[in-house]
């Protein structure tokens, strides 16, 4: 059977018929999946994505394990949370052996919206190659760009295009949807100055204006984190 690859450009495009029985890969470069990948690589036991701060506080209250609350609304740390949505905060001494409970404006919404997928991976530029190596065993893949406030985002689409390019170079017979072809073409057209191009995006501009330049530099690094992040039950683990 010929493998197939599709791209959804935002969480708003999610529906059961597009992902049920398929392998989903959620991307939120700025910054939820970059945070999750970094935390799991730096020793976190697991990540629990939730939709609301009340859900996060409830989980922490009802569980005795080492729990860290991290997340944002409109890029700012949620009141009462331990951390915001910066991957650079996910140091080993902070996250080691902890459950990271996260809620964000876009990324965790996309993850929870993809619950009907048969398998679900979390990806970013940081762990793209590792993720692609795991995906080669799967035949029907959907790359889900979390997007920004329900709409298209440059950075997530570029990452989806990069993933599509990596997959296509290994599986030369894979069938790319129009959206996957467009994502790959966009990535290849700006590959040499990808971050400079992404800087034109709205979300990038918001983070830059708020002084998150170190996060922006880090989140566009390719393949620095050799970890595969996969949903098992309600949680995301490094596998």
From TrEMBL:
- Going by the entry's taxonomy, the superkingdom of the source organism is recorded as Bacteria
As its record notes, the protein acts as a catalyst of: (2R)-O-phospho-3-sulfolactate + H2O = (2R)-3-sulfolactate + phosphate
What's one Pfam family here? 2-ph_phosp
Q: Name one GO molecular function term.
A: magnesium ion binding
Cite the entry's keywords alphabetically: Hydrolase, Magnesium
Q: Does the keyword Hydrolase apply?
A: yes
How would you classify this enzyme at the top EC level? hydrolase
Q: What cofactor does its activity depend on?
A: Mg(2+)
Q: Please give the InterPro entries that the UniProt record associates with this protein.
A: ComB-like, ComB-like_sf
The catalytic activity of this protein is classed by the Enzyme Commission as: 3.1.3.71
Against SUPFAM superfamilies, the record matches this protein to: ComB-like
What family does this belong to? Belongs to the ComB family.
Its name, as the record gives it, is Probable 2-phosphosulfolactate phosphatase
What is the species listed in this Swiss-Prot or TrEMBL entry? Marinilabilia rubra
Q: What is the lineage of its organism?
A: Bacteria, Pseudomonadati, Bacteroidota, Bacteroidia, Marinilabiliales
């Amino acid at each position: 059977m010929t493998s197939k690859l599709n791209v959804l450009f935002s969480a708003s495009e999610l529906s059961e018929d597009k992902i049920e029985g398929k392998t989903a890969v959620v991307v939120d470069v700025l910054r939820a999946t970059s945070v999750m990948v970094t935390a799991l690589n730096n020793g976190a036991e697991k990540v629990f994505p939730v939709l609301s701060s009340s859900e996060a506080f409830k989980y922490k209250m009802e569980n005795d394990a080492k729990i860290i609350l991290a997340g944002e609304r409109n890029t700012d740390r949620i009141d009462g949370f331990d951390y915001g949505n910066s991957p650079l905060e996910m140091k080993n001494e902070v996250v080691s052996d902890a459950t990271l409970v996260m809620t964000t404006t876009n990324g965790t919404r996309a993850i929870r919206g993809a619950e009907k997928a048969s398998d679900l991976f979390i990806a970013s530029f940081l762990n793209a190659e590792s993720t692609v190596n795991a995906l080669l065993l799967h035949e029907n893949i959907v790359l889900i760009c979390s997007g920004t406030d329900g709409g298209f985002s440059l950075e997530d689409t570029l990452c989806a295009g990069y993933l599509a390019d990596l997959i296509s170079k290994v599986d030369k017979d894979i069938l790319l949807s129009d959206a996957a072809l467009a994502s790959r073409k966009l990535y290849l057209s700006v590959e040499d100055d990808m971050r400079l191009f992404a800087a034109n995006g709205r979300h990038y501009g918001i983070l830059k204006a708020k002084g998150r330049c170190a996060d922006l530099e880090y989140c566009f690094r390719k393949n620095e984190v050799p970890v595969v992040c996969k949903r098992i039950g309600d949680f995301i683990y490094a596998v």
